[in-house]
Design a protein that fits this description.
Elements: H1 2-29, E1 34-37, E2 40-43, H2 46-55
Antiparallel strand pairs: 1-2
Length: 68
């Protein structure tokens, strides 16, 4: 029974961290310059972030269609 509990907590923590990281990625990709959540107010320089993103090379992705 304890093994099931360990698997459950590992799954729950991993899922929460994954959702948190996905939310952070969505917030970074958004083009909102002013974000106001509860008592937290964030002002971002979206244009500066776009210039930085354009300078970085695209990440390599595995393309299954080019395999021989």
């Amino acid at each position: 029974m304890q093994e099931l509990s360990e698997v459950f907590w590992s799954f729950l923590i991993s899922s929460c961290v994954g959702l948190l990281l996905a939310g952070c990625r969505l917030m970074y990709k958004s083009k909102c310059s002013n974000i106001d959540i509860c008592c937290i107010k964030i002002v971002r320089d979206v244009e500066g972030e776009e210039r930085i993103d354009e300078r970085e090379p695209p990440s390599p992705r595995a393309d299954n269609s080019q395999r021989v």
